[in-house]
Fold these 2 entries.
Entry 1:
Amino acid sequence: MSEIRVLEGPAAAQGRRAAIVAARFNDFIVASLLKGAIETWQVCGGAPADLTVARVPGAFELPLVARKLGASRRFDAIVALGCVIRGDTPHFDYVAGECARGLQLASLETGVPIAFGVLTVNTAEQALERAATAGANKGAEAMRTALEMAALLARLE
């Protein structure tokens, strides 16, 4: 019986170019996600000059800029960072849902992996827990995911 071939990509940034699109809304959370993503880029061997950060007003604006960056063909991977906290109105559902849908569509249209580092939480406390730089920072996790996907896609070409 022949061996099964498993394809995976390492979370290696050396020689890659990446972009982070980060929302300014709820910046008390997003700043920590951004810090985690940038630190992970550096730990994974990425050069500062090969990382671009674009700031947008809020999570709803992430997909448009992510799509524009992906279509430019200048980046191997994109990380989208934001935080949507549930309130008393349906606004959360619209913003969170359309953000996720738009980022997925942008990735599929451009062929560039866009990692979803947008927190969709019920409380600010939940967001702070997921953005903690000492713990399981979701910005760092999104950067690792983006790098793994970029490497895997390169192997598939």
Entry 2:
Amino acid sequence: MPDQNKQEEILKAASTCFAQYGFAKTTMDDIGKMVGLNKASLYYYYKNKEAIFCEIITREREKFLCSLTEKIDAIDTWHEKIQVYILERQRYSQKTINLHKLSTKTSEQLQFQPIFRKLLKRFTISETKIIRRILDQALEKKQICPVDTHKAASAILLVANGIKQQQMLLQNHTMTLAQFDFDQLEDETRFTISLILKGLTVTKPLP
């Protein structure tokens, strides 16, 4: 059975390496040396650096979502809850990118790897549930038009992700995502999501 303390050391060392060298240039040897393990021993815990990275971002994301959920629960209006959620997740994505020094090219390549596609699916399911919960509450209070809240939540996420994806495609693949114009991305996302939310809003009281 893997030593849990050693796993924690590996994750901490990997985070340090990613921040220092960038994800693309970090090797399993770099991580192993930092925790005093040869490559064979390191493979006992994780089969590759992608698996380590997935574990790191999963843990980081769980902490982030916990704090963000508390934040949006304290907001009064349903549409502001959704706007804050969408924009905060975008800012969190920027923070993660900067912390691990991901390039546009590396980010795109990771999306096609099975381990990341599986992780993305899990993230999407959980995020859809969060937005759907907000919409369900608004629907119960008759603040939005009758709608399939699951489909509506999925559409909101799809649009937000689509805006980001399109902006990334326009960037130079050699640049780091830290150089990405996140201010423009945030403005476009806020504007577009607001249009969707206005379309859901009840303009006059429902009977």
